[in-house]
């Protein structure tokens, strides 16, 4: 039934960019609404900086979280409903504690060297929501409710 269909979360993941992209994300996941979901991201370039962005339909990119080092987690523009983990330099996982309709969006994981992004910023400032073309590598996840 349509109600049953609406009660499930469909995560459809696809890789964007060149076929040799150095970022990979979780394969397909199906979760019930209200349950937790994890989007995993791995990169092979040993970049210090990693990012998670959300892009809802018809809107621009919003920075959810970023990390400039192992065990470092910095909040971006979206404050509620997400947590991240950076246990190793190549891993940056995004967690949604309770999946809701408003989480329907495209999620981009990206990495870059931190020279341009951090060197000129004061400690309490966050990097701007810069376009993806300024990032070395990126891939995307489609999250459909």
From TrEMBL:
<keyword id="KW-0732">Signal</keyword>
<dbReference type="InterPro" id="IPR013783">
    <property type="entry name" value="Ig-like_fold"/>
</dbReference>
<dbReference type="GO" id="GO:0007166">
    <property type="term" value="P:cell surface receptor signaling pathway"/>
</dbReference>
<dbReference type="InterPro" id="IPR036179">
    <property type="entry name" value="Ig-like_dom_sf"/>
</dbReference>
<dbReference type="GO" id="GO:0005886">
    <property type="term" value="C:plasma membrane"/>
</dbReference>
<dbReference type="InterPro" id="IPR003599">
    <property type="entry name" value="Ig_sub"/>
</dbReference>
<keyword id="KW-0391">Immunity</keyword>
<dbReference type="InterPro" id="IPR050413">
    <property type="entry name" value="TCR_beta_variable"/>
</dbReference>
<dbReference type="InterPro" id="IPR013106">
    <property type="entry name" value="Ig_V-set"/>
</dbReference>
<dbReference type="InterPro" id="IPR007110">
    <property type="entry name" value="Ig-like_dom"/>
</dbReference>
<dbReference type="GO" id="GO:0002376">
    <property type="term" value="P:immune system process"/>
</dbReference>
<dbReference type="Pfam" id="PF07686">
    <property type="entry name" value="V-set"/>
</dbReference>
<protein>
    <recommendedName>
        <fullName>Ig-like domain-containing protein</fullName>
    </recommendedName>
</protein>
<feature type="domain" description="Ig-like">
    <location>
        <begin position="18"/>
        <end position="109"/>
    </location>
</feature>
<feature type="signal peptide">
    <location>
        <begin position="1"/>
        <end position="21"/>
    </location>
</feature>
């Amino acid at each position: 039934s349509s109600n049953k269909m609406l009660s499930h979360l469909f995560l459809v993941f696809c890789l964007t960019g060149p076929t040799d992209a150095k970022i990979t994300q979780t394969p397909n996941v199906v979760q019930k609404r209200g349950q937790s979901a994890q989007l995993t991201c791995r990169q092979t370039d040993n970049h210090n900086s990693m990012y998670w962005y959300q892009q809802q339909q018809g809107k621009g990119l919003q920075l959810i979280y970023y990390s400039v080092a192992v065990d470092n987690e910095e909040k971006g523009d979206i404050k509620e409903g997400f947590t991240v983990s950076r246990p190793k330099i190549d891993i940056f996982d995004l967690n949604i504690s309770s999946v809701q309709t408003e989480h329907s969006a495209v999620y981009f994981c990206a990495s870059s060297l931190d020279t341009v992004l951090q060197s000129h910023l004061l400690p309490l400032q966050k990097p701007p929501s810069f376009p993806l073309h300024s990032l070395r590598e990126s891939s995307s996840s489609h999250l459909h409710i």
